[in-house]
Amino acid sequence: MIRNLLQRSSRLAVVRRWCASLACAALAFSVVQANAADLATIEQRGVLRVAVPQDYPPFGSIGADLEPQGYDIDTARYLAEQIGVELELVPVTSANRIPYLTSDRADLVISSLGKTPEREQAIDFSSAYAPFFYGVFSATEEPEMSGPEALAGKTIGATRGALEEIKLTEVAPSSTTLRRYEDNATTLSAFTSGQVDYVATGSPVAAALATRGGARTPHLVLTLQDSPCYIGISKGNQALKEKVDSLIAAGLADGTFDAMSERWFGMPLPESMRSL
Amino acid sequence: MLDFLSLLPYWQVFVEGIVTTLWVTVVATLLGLAIAVPFAWLRLEGPRLLSALIGIYVELIRNTPFIVQLFFIYFGLPALDLRLSATSCALIAMTLNLTAYATEIIRAGIQAVPKGQREAARVLGMSPLQSYRHVVLVPALSRIYPALTSQCIIVMLGSAVISQISVEELTYAANFIQSRNFRSFETYIVATLCYLGIAIAMRQSFEYIGRRLFGFLQGEQR
């Protein structure tokens, strides 16, 4: 009886301790979210922290020399150089790239980020810096679909949290099975290993997969949306946003981004981006 | 600052995730324990070849990461034209994993029963099966029951990993919600509390079952 009582009171103490540590964690979190670095802080610090993908060629991947490479990394280098600070690359996945920004672990997200109203509530966006369209690709050659209704009954792999997955969740008929994976590499493995016969992904990824060869190469069956990429900036960071916007405009005008597009996508920028 | 209301539209996703976590855990636990008991016996007293094979299996599973086992079954086996659904792959991986650990735990329990105890039972006229069941297995299981409980809870917590192959369990639900509302702190706090609740509930049920099964031994070894 007494032993039982003692046990119960020690259990209560444990619960109380948990509550206390939870409260501490909540406090720490709120402090972190409050101060994102503005342009002056970055210049003073002398380091620009940029969240970049490392599993999403040709935007960002690890090269043969084990160094990150790609369109996003070149963009980050260009911006850091123009601002006149050192560059620190922060590798992220497509699921955690926005949390990295909102928790102030990065100043900019240059990670083939598309724009959605939900994301615009959480962060600010620069002007477009990279071309992109995304769609559904099949493992076997088949005629292009007339619309999302044609996806009925199909199983499609996609990366959770990525724009194409959010879009597909909206437009796909209810009989479509969406298999969501943690990151792009896993999604592509599911496609190449035959766990899914369709994959929803971006145009450059499909192009990279096709050039790599193998038995299962992607064929476009449905274009979901043409959506250029934007740089993510923490909410209300106006000075940094203006600086990034002006540098993108300058880079588009002097051909910097055109050269990068040639290098990584094998084609010049589309007309729609030049006029921006 | 903290906005738990932003999770409200997703409560169904959470509930579905919890249900999936629970049922894969229950199936894997029942299957795993059911296989582990004969495996432990065969490992100790079976034919030498069979005992060695089980030993290899146990060591193979216990000395490799769970996520690698899972990826091997999900992404690797299709190369041999063996293509199973994500949920089947997860169940197989979890069962294989629990069986290996439970086999080892139960083996330890059986070995802890003094040999004389069994000999005494035989001398008293119990059949080999009777003496094995009542004098070896039940005391052995009651001794290692707490360790077995922990192992089953570890398997439940480990089921978070199966979200990686798109099984829509609790962690998958949390990741999904977090990818929509970007409230990572609130989402993962709720997921954490769900796991905590499930783990405590599992421990309590195991204790209850343990009292029903081994209650008569109380005061002796437990």
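qc> Residues 27-34 of chain A have pLDDT under 50 and may be disordered.
qc> done
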